[in-house]
Amino acid sequence: MENIRPLRTEEDYDWALAEIGRYFDNPPEVGSHEADRFDVLSTLAEAYENAQYPIQDLAPVPAILAFMEMTGRTQADLAALLGSRSRASEILNYRRPLTMDAAHRLSRQWRIPADILIKPYRLESSRERRTS
Questions:
Q1: In the chain, which residues fall in CATH 1.10.260.40?
Q2: In the chain, which end has fewer C-beta atoms inside a 10 angstrom radius, N or C?
Q3: Cβ 98 vs Cβ 123: under 8 Å
Q4: Do 68 and 74 meet the contact criterion of CB atoms below 8 Å apart?
Q5: CA 20 to chain centre
Q6: DSSP-derived secondary structure letter, 122
Q7: pLDDT in tens, 30-51
Q8: Contact 89, 64 (CB under 8 A)
């Protein structure tokens, strides 16, 4: 594969993202040399991100919020994924827990690691909301 190298620095990572970005405008044909190149570059970028920017210590809601911020997604995008604006709002405001179905959708479609999404977390009680 032409011009593929290890990603050791932020400059290498930025290069890989720029290369990957080209494929979003012009997707390669499945099974082609370019599709293989895209897969390899994506894997390298993901490995670099996991090593340089680990998010495993985050609880589910902060992980979702961080992912939304990093990718430019909005609460409306989350609502579309989960099927309801109120459900998305309640989850982000600690009023409703993530269901296994919601965690599965987030993991599968947004590629947030499932082990982060299934961590237990405390909901805000109605009493806490009244005193805030």
A1: 60-125
A2: C
A3: no
A4: yes
A5: 17
A6: P
A7: 999 999 999 999 999 999 998 8
A8: no
106 by Cβ neighbours in 10 Å (0-12 / 13-18 / 19+) ranks as buried
Is the distance from CB of 81 to CB of 109 less than 8 angstroms? yes
Measured in whole angstroms, the distance separating CA 53 from the mean position of its chain's CA atoms is 12
Banded model confidence at residue 53, pLDDT cuts 50, 70, 90: confident
Whether 114 and 64 have beta carbons less than 8 Å apart is answered as no
Is domain 60-125 in CATH 1.10.260.40, yes or no? yes
Contacts of 49 (CB under 8 A, 6+ apart): 13
* DSSP string computed for 61-106: HHHHHHHHHHHT--HHHHHHHHT-HHHHHHHHTTSSPPPHHHHHHH
Band of residue 117 on the pLDDT scale cut at 50, 70, 90: very high
Number of C-beta neighbours around residue 16 at 10 A: 22
